[in-house]
Structure formats: structure tokens, C-alpha cells
Amino acid sequence: MCTSITMKTLQNKSFLGRNMDFSHDIDPHLFIVPRQYIWKSAADMRKITTRYKFIGIGQQLEGLLSFFDGVNETGFAAAALYFSGCAKYDSLYQGTQKIQLAAFDFLKYILGRCSTVSDVKQAVKEVSLIGKADPVTKTSAPLHWIAAEKSGRCVVIEKTEKGFNVFENQIGVLANAPDFSWHMTNLNNYTNVTSIQCENTHWGEVKLSAPSQAGGTLGLPGGFASPERFVRTAFIKKHTYTPPDDNSAVGLCFQCLKSVSIPKGVIMTGRDTSDFTLYTAFMNQEKGDYFVNTHTNQQIYKASINDGKSNQWNQKLIDLGSIFRPVEFLPI
């Protein structure tokens, strides 16, 4: 399970972020991938070369490097979210002219090759997504993706039995299954929910008064199922204030996703493992800055696409280390 949102400041700066909810043991690291970096498709071992430098959170396991989210030097940002029961992939085909990618390689591909939504739409025409087991879940993990260019234009990318589609995402929110169109239609069920306090009323001769503030939000879903998180996040995002600057945006972004952050143990899977929020991350698309905290440490840490010794002539992958950091309580 995961939730993702976009955010814009009064200065028209764009941010994209997500809660990474997962029930498998992973050790995510921050990586910087340079321009002209060559990697092999896990589907057919075809060599792929990155066009743009990017920074992302991912994991390297059994010789495969896959990413969960990231932002590139053009300000294009994207994240992969679980899409259980809806994703439908292709089979490997030797005679195709398309670029065959395992689904877990798709995010790495678009971060390294796309700068705009138009690029994404072109990539979807050129790529065939292959169902291949990843080294973490040992299954062909069902995924869909949220992506946004630096201008703030946002889309959702889904590969289902209906085909490989790109949907404009004006609400700037994504959760898990069902498909994105279903979630947008479902928002129509919550037209009564408002940020405005309810007025006193009468039922016949009986006077009724709201017992406290926030009466207008009665009916807003409070659970952690994907439709509930989508609605709650969309409501919060669209009713909060617009942050004036970058620092305010970072704080607000993390605050918005707190309402759908899942503590460990609250949601249990059929494998008797907890599905919980491992980390929350936001990317400043203008600057290539990354902000992240984890379930073990709520301190927000920052990294940048310009960290390390990476430059346009250096084709070496840079591992900035694990996002899990020791807890430190700072004195007041």
C-alpha cells in the first residue's frame, strides 16, 4: 500500500512525494544515477542508457537495482505504487521492436529518459511491460505510477487489461487499486464533505448544534484502505493552505501524508506480516532536493541530486547510503 501527492508553492515550485507502505523487509538506499549510465533490462538483458541524471530511493538486490521514487535533473519526478489485482503485463516476445522492461524497471527507465508528460506518453508507445518476478516479493509485483513534470502537470500510468494508458491527474493524488478512473469517480460520493463548520439547525422543534469544530468533515473516510486514503488525501490536499516557499512546502507535505501514515501492526497481511509506512519522501522538483523520514526516525533528512562527486562526465552510480538513520533526540 502507498499514497502519493503533488504540491505547489505560491512561488509556483512543484513537489512530489509519497508514503512507502510495504509488508516486505527492504533496506532502501538513496542513489544518484548519472547521465549516460548503462543498465540492462531485467526482461531481455537489452542495454539501456540514461539520458538524464537522477536521484532516487531504491534497493540493489541480487544484481538488480530497482527504484521506488525519484526526480531527475529536469525536474521530472515519479513514484511506483502497488496496484494489486489490476495490473496486467505482457509476455516476453522475441520478435517485438518494443523495449521490453520488467515492471520494476519502468520507473528507472522514465526517470532516466523523460523530462515531460509528453515524453511519458511517447515512452508508453515504445515500451512493453513484462511480468517478471522481482527479488523482494518473488512475484511479478503489480504496479502503477504517478509522474509529474517541473511545471506541476501530473499523470498516472497504468498497464491493465484495457491497455497501457496515461491519465491526466488534476487532483494530484494516487493510492492503490482500484484503477485511477474509479478513484476519481468515487470522489463524487463526498460532495457533502467540507472544511466549513456546520451551522446550527432545527429538526422540527429540536435545535441541533455541532458539538465541536470540524463538523463539516463528518463522512470523510478514516480507514487505511486504498479508496479511503485516496479520498482523505485528496480532501486534505485541496483544502490546506498554499505554502509560500520551499521550507513551508516541505513541512506541509509531510503533515498532509501523516493522516494516511500506517503505524506498524495496524494492518496485517495474510502472511502474518505488517503492512506499514516504511518511509515518507518528498522531492523538490526545481532543485532536485530529496527529503525523507522513516518509521524508525521521524527526523527529516535531506539529500540532493548534486551530492557526491557525480557530474555529466562521470558514469558511476553513487550510493548515498541507507535512508534508515540512528535516532537522535535534540535538546531544546
Automatic annotation (TrEMBL):
| Species name | Faecalicatena contorta
Which protein, by its recorded name, is this? Choloylglycine hydrolase
UniProt-listed InterPro entries: CBAH/NAAA_C (IPR029132), Ntn_hydrolases_N (IPR029055), Peptidase_C59 (IPR052193)
Say which domain of life the source belongs to: Bacteria
Q: Name one GO molecular function term.
A: hydrolase activity
What Gene3D superfamilies does the record tag this protein with? Penicillin V Acylase, Chain A
Please give the family membership noted in the entry.
Belongs to the peptidase C59 family.
User: Domain named Choloylglycine hydrolase/NAAA C-terminal: which ranges?
Assistant: 2-307
